[in-house]
Specification:
4-stranded mixed beta sheet, globular, alpha+beta, about 180 residues
Length: about 180
C-alpha cells in the first residue's frame, strides 16, 4: 500500500452535516470579525449586512452598509432607492471586511463541495441554509441592531423569488421591509 493511499484511508470521513455545522460556525466568526473591523475603524453604524455566494457556490463574501453612506446614496439616487437598499454591490463595504476570513471560507467551499457531491442545486441549497442560520445568529447575539437589514443571497444567478423571500422574511421581522423587498 502506498503512503498516499494509507493517508487517505486513515483520514476521518467528514459528514455533510458536520461540514456544514463547522462552516456555519466559521461564518459567524468571520461576520463578527468584519463587524469588529467596522467598529474599530469607526466607519459608521451597520444598517445592512449580507452574506452572498457566487453562482457556483464556490466563494462567499460579506457586504455591510452603514447609515451615513446609505443616506448619501439615497439622497443622490432617490429613483434607485430599492437598488441602493437591497443590493449588496451598492453598499459601502462590499466584500471589503474580514478579507482573510472570507478567503479561508471560500477555500473551504472546495472541500465542502467534494463532500456534498455533484448536484449544484442541492449543494447551493444546503449552503444557503447554513448561511441563513449563521446570519440569523448575528441578530440573536445582538451583534447587529434590530433595524439592521440582513440578507443571504447568490450573486449573478437567476433568482428563486419564493425561496429568496422566505429567507429574507426569516432574517428580517419588519413586515414593511419584507413587503418592500417583495
Amino acid at each position: 500500500m502506498s503512503k498516499r493511499t494509507a493517508t487517505r484511508s486513515t483520514r476521518p470521513r467528514v459528514t455533510r452535516a458536520a461540514w456544514l455545522a463547522a462552516f456555519e460556525q466559521e461564518l459567524v466568526a468571520a461576520c463578527k470579525r468584519g463587524l469588529a473591523e467596522l467598529r474599530k475603524d469607526k466607519a459608521g453604524t451597520a444598517c445592512a449586512l449580507a452574506v452572498y455566494l457566487d453562482e457556483s457556490a464556490m466563494s462567499v463574501s460579506l457586504s455591510v452598509d452603514v447609515v451615513d453612506a446609505r443616506a448619501q446614496r439615497l439622497d443622490a439616487n432617490a429613483e434607485w432607492a430599492d437598488d441602493m437598499v437591497f443590493s449588496p454591490a451598492e453598499w459601502a463595504f462590499e466584500a471589503a471586511l474580514a478579507d482573510a476570513a472570507f478567503a479561508r471560507l471560500s477555500r473551504r467551499l472546495v472541500r465542502g463541495k467534494a463532500i456534498y457531491g455533484t448536484s449544484l442545486r442541492r449543494w447551493r441549497t444546503a449552503l444557503l441554509a447554513a448561511c441563513t442560520r449563521a446570519v440569523a445568529k448575528l441578530r440573536v447575539g445582538e451583534l447587529v441592531g434590530r433595524d439592521c437589514l440582513l440578507l443571504v443571497t447568490v450573486s449573478d444567478a437567476a433568482p428563486d423569488l419564493d425561496r429568496d423571500l422566505r429567507r429574507f422574511a426569516r432574517l428580517n421581522r419588519d413586515r414593511a421591509l419584507v413587503a418592500r423587498y417583495r
